[in-house]
Amino acid sequence: MGWKKDFKKQFNERRKSIFDYSDGVSSVIIWERSYESPKTLLLDDIRLKRRWFDADLAERTENYSQPEMLHKYNYVFNSLGVSEYFEKYLTIGDFENTVKLITSQHGEYAAQVVLLMLKKWVYFTEIKFWDVYNITFMGQKEFDENIAKKIFEAMKLTGLEAIDGMLNKANELLETVSNLDPYRHYLMIEELIDIGEDFTWHWSKMLDQIVDSAIAAMYNETISEEFTSDDTIQFDSTFDDFFEKTKTMVLNDELDEAMEYFGMTFASSEGEFKKIYRTLAKQYHPDINRDPSAAVEMKRINMYKTIIEDYFSNTLGG
Fold it and tell me: Do 79 and 210 lie in a common domain?
């Protein structure tokens, strides 16, 4: 029972805001943004950066093994309508079909930038997953392969959904230029390379909840005393049911957090939200506020803004 108390303490630490930039066993991803000049964004440089992510990830995970019941797989990304083959979990693959499609539509350089974007996402999420997974579960006698499989499958799907969103966002940006160029469009290229950062928040929260659910299953406990029986995630239920309930719980938590940040209730109007957002943006936008912490706060504001906008769009038809 001693290690269980330690994990409960760790869970409380992991529930810190994604913007606290904590590390260790936290699921928070400390993303390293690309601040480049046009001279460092030429085609050969893009390829070199991508190879570095591949090589370093392979070295870091060389001795890690996934559950034997997991196999190589294919997945169709709706945003581009392409199927990709993945050699390893969670989302380690070459993205060959994606590269071919983007090359045909936007040219080789654009395709290599998008590939770097994908490889950077895979790099940070894979390393974070294995850090949390190994520290939390390895060597624990209550942990079995069925629990491990559900963890891997849930985070695989979370990652694939994020990649689909990243590809959709990247394609929208590429549609705005006729020929992506490192000198004329270097700011857009930086944005493309770091699109993955915007998708780490939900991924990290999903990992938190999946780990909590797995620990509860190991001890035959409910996830939290605060949940009713309808809200409790049953780890031994079918995978689809488990995954959808987990995602719904995380999305609801994110919406509650966003509402609280903006000082809103579910009775607040879209107009009220826009007024609050404009006030905060004027206070923290980096073009106005040069304090380094303002950029972090502005990212938090925009993250919550997306959640609130999705809420109004999906629920109120805004």
Answer: yes
